[in-house]
Design brief:
Layout (H helix, E strand, L loop, with lengths): L1 E2 L5 E2 L11 E2 L3 E2 L5 E10 L2 E9 L2 H9 L5 E10 L1 H4 L5 E12 L5 E7 L4 E5 L2 E2 L9 E5 L5
Antiparallel strand pairs: 1-4, 2-3, 5-6, 5-7, 7-8, 8-9, 8-12, 9-10, 10-11
């Protein structure tokens, strides 16, 4: 979840449309992984890129399913806190894939595979080191290139 505040809003009038708001900063208060996505958009004026910050896997799944000939995901970075990636600090790494599974006791978990061979496993509110694979289903598959 990202938070915004009125004093961080950039007042630009209607230059980007009446439903668009620009912010000097946003705040992310949860120590959970999130995604930095490069989105390529094809218009009559050419191709351009936007970057999206998605706060959860569900949002990424929706974006993946909404791709079209005119809007494609070019790359996804996993942004993860130190407890999750075991580095002690936040990291931003190219995401290769996410799969979802369920343990024998019924807990759901996600497996995040990143460039360089890293693999992180989450369950509920934290990271678990041992999982029991019953069935992992692909949630996201990408090349990890931005």
């Amino acid at each position: 979840m990202f938070r915004t505040y009125a004093d961080a809003e950039i007042q630009i009038g209607e230059a980007f449309g009446s439903d668009c708001h620009l912010w000097r900063y946003i705040e992310h208060g949860l120590h959970q992984p999130w995604f930095y996505v490069t989105l390529a958009k094809l218009t009559k004026h050419g191709k351009y890129r936007d970057m999206l910050m998605l706060s959860d896997v569900v949002g990424l799944e929706r974006l993946v399913s909404s791709q079209s000939e005119l809007v494609k995901i070019e790359g996804v970075q996993l942004v993860s806190p130190g407890y999750f990636n075991k580095s002690g600090s936040w990291l931003m790494e190219p995401l290769l894939s996410i799969s979802k599974g369920r343990s024998k006791i019924g807990r759901s978990y996600y497996v995040y595979r990143v460039s360089g061979g890293g693999c992180y496993i989450s369950s509920g509110g934290g990271c678990v080191s041992d999982r029991i694979e019953e069935s992992e289903v692909a949630v996201f598959e990408g090349g990890g290139n931005d």
